[in-house]
What we know:
Shape: globular
Strand order of the largest sheet: 1-7-6-5-4-2-3
CATH class of the domain at 49-299: Alpha Beta
Number of strands: 13
Radius of gyration: 22 Å
Structural class: alpha/beta
Strand content: 5-15%
Number of helices: 13
Amino acid sequence: MIRMPEKGRDWREVRAEMVQRGGGDAQWRDGKTAVYVFNAGPEISAVQHEAYGLYMAENGLGPLAFPSLAQMEKEVIGMGLSLLHGPEGATGAMTSGGTDSITMAMKTARDYARSLGKPREGQNVVLAQSAHLAFDKAAHLMDIEVRRVPLKTDGSYEADPDAMGEAVDEATVMMVGSAPNFPHGIIDPIEELGEVAAKKDVWLHVDACVGGYFAPFARMNGVPVPPFDFEVPAVHSMSADLHKYGYCAKGASTVLFRSEELYQHMPFDMAGWSGAPMKTPTLAGTRPGGAISAAWGVMNTLGVEGYKRLQGQVCATRERMEEGVKRLGFEIVGNPMLGLMAFYHPDAHAFAVYGEIYRRGWFTSVTKEPPSLHLMLSPKHADVVEDYLSDLEASLKAVTGGTSGSEVEARYS
């Protein structure tokens, strides 16, 4: 059992130990990590730190006590909605992350369905096989059935709107599209899903946790991003993470709604206890002020031009990666447009290759369907493309030459 020290230690000693403990962690500052961290460089990191620290003690739970935070959150939501074609009256809230945003969107859709008199028994959510597992977590909490539908069979790795429509019934509270999905980096056909959702009269949620603060700027840079947001009339809600490609400090996402009428089904309002009445917009009670202030600080520091520059750099890096892995005989999964990509080799199991690239100091990820290597690229990766490709080639040779010592294939199979 670890016990608290009887006497406190000098902070310099404690800090040195903290730094030392991190010595064996993934080396994301060197660009050798392509998951978990979104590295926009030291200048943005400094903004995150300082802006977070300015409001680190404040609590977003108390808008009357801290109107500054309430105003910053309102402006962050406004900036998000302006990027994602939010109509007049659209609104939303900041949350702690994508899972939180998705959970609150599902809770809101469930309560909205109840308000319309839809059945409470057999409630379900319909989503593609590639949709994020956060929907399953939220469904587990609310005892909602998850109906995962196979993807299109045309090699696009997109959601299949017709098949999803067939899975909808009178107790369906939500359909889900991804922009993009996490496993493959593919944007689902949101317009087609919208047509199905409108026909079935069911709530359509777009999970843009990865792409919400990327795709608009990619489109501004000329990437042919299809309609995926509130531009599609059937979209009721969206989740979009600020701490991913918004490059904000962690603990920051947004959940957005087409109208105040829909949003009103999200907050929790309670007066029937001994304490003061309380209304909370999201799952959390205490809401770290630093996450709100850092998001506001980063978004205002970068502006549209800054985001266009960073997202253009990521797209260019992805294209370089695509060209490089193709030269090595890998095949790209679908048609990724943003910062995510998955790829596999016809002559080598992806998980075995992953084990080799991991041994060479790269902490990335894998996709199970199909077995693939997976990269979530940041601006920093522009500096290490050739290094990664060189190690990938060596890893591939180790696997195809029978010299691999990886146990990863057995672990994930």
